[in-house]
Amino acid sequence: MFAYILRRLWQMLPTMAGVVVLVFVLFNWVGGDPSYLLAGKMADARAIANIRAQLGLDAPWYVQLGIFVKQIVTFDFGNAWATGEPVSHIIASRLGPSLTVLVPLTVLETTIGIALALAVAFVRGSLTDRVVMVACTVGMSISILVYIIVFQYGLAYKLGLFPVQGWGEHFTENLLRYATLPILIGLTVSLAPTLRLFRSFVLDEVGQDYVRTARAKGLPERRIVWVHVLRNAAIPIITYVMANLPALLIGAFLLERFFGIPGIGREVILAVERSDFPVIKAITVYVAAATMVFNLLADLMYQAVDPRVQLK
Amino acid sequence: MTVQELSLPATPVGLWGLAWRRLRADRVAMVALAVVGLFLLSVVLAATGLVAADWEDEVAVNYAPPSFVGPDPALAALALPPRPAPPNAFDPLAGDIAELRAQLARRGHAAHAAKRTTLPFGADKWGHDIVRKTIKGGQTSIVVGLVAAFVAVALGTLFGALSGFYGGLVDDLFNWFYNVFTAIPSILMILTVAAVLQTKGVLTIVLILGLTGWTGPYRLIRAEYIKHKAREYVMAADAIGASGWRKMFVHIFPNVSHVALVQMSILVVGFIKAEVILSFLGFGVPVGVVSWGSMLNEAQNELILGKWWQLTAAASAMAILVTAFSLFADALRDALDPKLK
Questions:
Q1: Residue B339 C-alpha, separation from nearest chain A C-alpha, in angstroms
Q2: Mutate which: A16, A19, A143, A287, vs B, most B CBs within 10 A
Q3: Could you give the CA distance from residue B337 to residue B18 in angstroms, rounded to a whole number?
């Protein structure tokens, strides 16, 4: 087990190196010279040269790459260009609000998704199943923007059930007051694709021999669904949920922006708007690393759930 | 009668013919196809200028409500042509302005045509007709979706073909590339590229989406090429001395093109949604170009004023197209790969 984890971490190195090079190439060659941006509108040649020297842009490319790698390894990306706040502090302080929304959202989405998928898969082909699937397709085709705009306007602004936007100091206040509507919207948007996917996972299982055997020995349908099928369908579900967690951190950016939640996603949007390269670079590299680690975690959990799987 | 005529049916039916037959039998798919066809027709008409070319004309009063709601009495005053300013003997520009007015009148511009108080589906902040604006916005969004999906599938197919066909070092290289691109969540990748490129424009969005979206098609096409390269027809092509490129794209590609087509139809849906979000955030289409995303951006503020029509128009046009396109993509996949289901 330990050897497996070590080898997987070792295999991540080339991919991580690729991510670093990709980000480096994007920001250093594809993008324009940031010193013009930083120098402002009334820039003279001296100021620009000064900024270039500060950023290390006048050094050869391998020195710049070295600086970038050092920044990644030491978690020190310097200060954000727009606000002067240390990048490491930005990431650390924005993680909490993001997780306050994302953890309840993921838990609710997965539980409700599994329950509905099992229910729908067992009446597959029936009218209910078809109506639910068509509803999912229609629900998925409406832009997330429309959900957010309409829900925020209707439930928060018109009816006053929730605060329109905002964020407080205390965790419970945030969770129960400010995060409720974003979670509700996130759930509405994500439930349809989740349900479709989980349904296909369950459908792969209900045709298996062990289900027939369980029926033949007279088990009640409830036990077959909730014990036999669920344990087998759980394997792809866990892989999917785990592997998607880091992407979700960014994916909630629209919710965070509309509701003024100071999370990672909103920070990315702000950084893109302000061309705040250190923040974008740091978030991209760390989210990529997190994606790889979570993929490994998914494989480890995979084995925990399914003893047949041998990690090699 | 020759032997050949006896043994073969009158017209042999290929993969595409069979798929078309299956698709024809699927009523939902045909309705979806018709809806998608209508949208594509509107794109062509809008692109050639036959329809909605004049969407920027301020034909109605600001925020004119839809006809079925009836005119808004608060806006009635705006519909009247403005009263001419009383003559001012001290106005130094009076002569110049009179000259300009005369020029405009000579070119046939009616000075301040009476503005309408209602339109079939209302007007926006500047009095643009929402129906025309939605058609024009649809042109941008759909063209971006189609072209970006084509770029992504072309890249994915090229990489997948090279990777699957040659294997070995080439395969390792592209797999590494694939791992790097999938390690970064696609939305973050899109935003990062948007931050770097700095230039707004339709071409930029197409490039962003196309260059980041090739991973899905790549994986599937690569698997198909691995499967096909060992088949007998490829060995036969090898025996007659066909080159690698010829085997890849003349012999094998027609047999895996259905995968590319299905992938493309799935990507179009995703990219239309992505374009709307990008344009909404202001990283997409430039100022002056209308898309469903920029319409939603305006509509967000209008909703608070109670002007719901622009939001409804853009949102429902997009929802109808995306629903039809997804249903068609599903049916297309089922028709081209009957083993699945």
A1: 14
A2: A143
A3: 11
B327–A145 C-beta distance less than 8 A = no
Structure tokens given for B105: 């009148």
Q: What is the pTM of this model?
A: 0.84
Using alpha carbons only, how large is chain B's radius of gyration in Å?
27
Q: How far apart are CA B183 and CA B180, in angstroms?
A: 5
Own/partner contacts of B164-171, CB < 8 Å, gap of 24 or more, are: B164/B221, B164/B222, B164/B223, B164/B224, B164/B225, B164/B226, B164/B229, B165/B225, B165/B229, B165/B244, B165/B247, B165/B248, B165/B252, B166/B244, B167/B226, B171/B222
Residue of A nearest to B326 (CA): A137
- φ and ψ at residue A78, rounded to 5 degrees: 75, -155
- pLDDT tens-digit profile of A87-101? 888 888 888 888 888
For residue A244, what is the nearest residue in chain B, using CA coordinates? B185
pLDDT at B1 (0 to 100):
45
The percentage of residues in chain B with a pLDDT greater than 70, rounded to a whole number, is 89
Cα distances (angstroms) measured from residue A175 to each of A97, A105, A147, A169, A171: 9, 11, 21, 11, 6
B29 contacts: CB under 8 Å, gap ≥ 6:
B23, B327, B328, B331, B332, B335
User: For the segment A21-64, what is each residue's pLDDT rounded down to a tens digit?
Assistant: 888 888 877 766 777 667 766 667 777 788 777 777 777 788 88
Tens digits of residue pLDDT in A68-82: 888 888 877 777 777
Strand partners, B272: none
Which of A253, A256, A259, A257 is CA-nearest to residue A152? Answer: A259
The contacts of residue B148 (CB under 8 Å, 6+ apart) are B205, B206, B209, B210, B213, B267, B271, B275
Number of C-alpha atoms within 13 angstroms, CB side, residue A2? 0
How many angstroms separate the CA atoms of A202 and A122, rounded? 9
Q: Say if A36 is an interface residue toward chain B (CB within 8 Å).
A: no
Residue B28: pLDDT band by 50, 70, 90 thresholds? confident
Q: What angle do CA B138, B144, B149 make, to 5 degrees?
A: 125
Q: Are the beta carbons of A272 and B187 separated by less than 8 Å?
A: no
On average, the pLDDT of chain A sits at 84
SS3 of B182, please?
helix
Q: What is the DSSP string of A223-291?
A: HIIIIIIHHHHHHHHHHHHHHHHHHHHHHTHHHHHHHT--SHHHHHHHHHHHT-HHHHHHHHHHHHHHH
Helices (H), chain B: 3-7, 15-25, 27-47, 76-79, 94-106, 130-166, 168-183, 186-197, 202-212, 215-228, 232-239, 244-246, 253-281, 292-304, 309-336
CA–CA dist B50, B135 (Å, integer): 12
**Cα–chain center distance at B125:** 25
Q: Which residues are within 8 A (CB) of B22 and not within 5 positions of it... i.e. 6 or more apart?
A: B334, B335, B338
- Is the predicted ipTM greater than 0.90, yes or no? no
Can you tell me the distance from the alpha carbon of B118 to that of B123, in angstroms, rounded to the nearest whole number? 8
Under DSSP, the state recorded for B129 is B
Does the beta-carbon distance from B196 to A27 stay under 8 Å? yes
Q: What is the pLDDT of residue B9?
A: 57
Q: What CA–CA distance (Å, rounded) separates B20 from B1?
A: 31
Which span out of A255-264, A273-282, B234-243 was modeled with the highest average pLDDT?
B234-243
